[in-house]
TrEMBL record:
An MF annotation (GO) of this entry: O-methyltransferase activity
Keyword Zinc: no
Annotated organism of origin: Flavobacterium urumqiense
Keyword Iron annotated: no
InterPro entries linked: SAM-dependent_MTases_sf, SAM_O-MeTrfase
Keywords: Methyltransferase, S-adenosyl-L-methionine, Transferase
UniProt record, GO biological process: methylation
Pfam families attached to this UniProt entry: Methyltransf_3 (PF01596)
Protein name, per record: Predicted O-methyltransferase YrrM
Length: 244
């Protein structure tokens, strides 16, 4: 990992170009950044997209590895100037990545369709922005169409209920598989053991919630950070549905 980034993780701060000390928060943890870097390196990904810039910590980590592979990065965040004092941009400029990052200060529902219209393609996506189901479903809808086959989408904060619910749905798409989690898929809960017996009851599918009938653990999403991989084009029938 780049020494500047290592130092930021150690001190939890950096100095911006206006000589202000910026104390970081809301950032992707070091271990998770290394996990992202390892995925990018192993798969030789070159075209990455990210939603959620903040102080630019994950952007820095992703760009470092993407640039090592000869690629470039694109990041979307509506609030970089208004909420983050442009310090994310400042940091990645200091790191020397100005030419390697495209930045859109706009809402994702505006940027993503415009990228599709331009015929852009990506092989790696990191989503760490709002935690609302509907916003993230729209993000996924477009990123899926922008993603190369074998490309991966990484969701942070899967412990938030809106994101967990979304993952319950999309992890069951026939053209996706759960690639991995960080930390690895958590332990089976006691509830699941109980559900095994409750499932013997008549009408159990009406009596038990879908979360019990189909636990997060079994879907491979019982973690904080989940990576899904697109293994094919979407060939679902118009009436395809799955309980989630
Ligand atoms: C948790 S922070 C991202 C942290 C960053 N990934 C890192 O590791 O340093 C969430 C970011 O999402 C942005 N955000 C929130 N809602 C958004 C939206 N609807 N579209 C785009 N970005 C959004 C916020 O401005 C904030 O920068």
């Amino acid at each position: 990992m780049n020494k500047i980034l290592e130092n930021i993780f150690e001190t939890k701060k950096f100095t911006n170009s206006k000589n202000q000390t910026i104390y970081i928060h809301s950032e992707t943890r070091k271990e998770q950044c290394e996990y992202l870097q390892n995925i990018i390196k192993t798969n030789n990904f070159k075209k990455s997209i990210e939603i959620g810039f903040a102080f630019g910590i994950s952007t820095f980590a992703i760009t470092e590895e993407i640039v090592n592979n000869g690629g470039s990065h694109l990041v979307i965040d509506k609030f970089q100037h208004s909420d983050w004092n442009s310090d994310g941009i400042d940091l990645v400029n200091q790191a020397g990545y100005t030419e390697k990052i495209e930045y859109f200060e706009e809402f994702c529902y505006v940027v993503l369709p415009s990228l599709l219209e331009k015929g852009r393609k990506f092989d790696f996506a990191y989503i760490d922005s709002t935690k609302q189901f509907d916003w993230l479903l729209v993000n996924f809808f477009y990123i899926d169409k922008l993603l190369e086959i074998n490309g991966m989408i990484v969701f942070d904060d899967v412990s938030f209920p809106g994101i967990r619910k979304l993952l319950r749905y999309i992890s069951q798409f026939p053209n996706y598989k759960v690639h991995s989690q960080n930390p690895s898929n958590n332990r089976i809960s006691q509830l699941r053991k109980l559900a095994k017996f409750l499932k013997l009851l008549p009408y159990h599918h009406k009596l038990l919630s879908i979360e019990i009938l189909k636990p997060d653990f079994d879907l491979g999403i019982n973690s904080h950070c989940v990576v899904i991989q697109k293994i094919n084009n979407d060939t679902r029938n118009w009436d395809w549905h799955v309980s989630f």
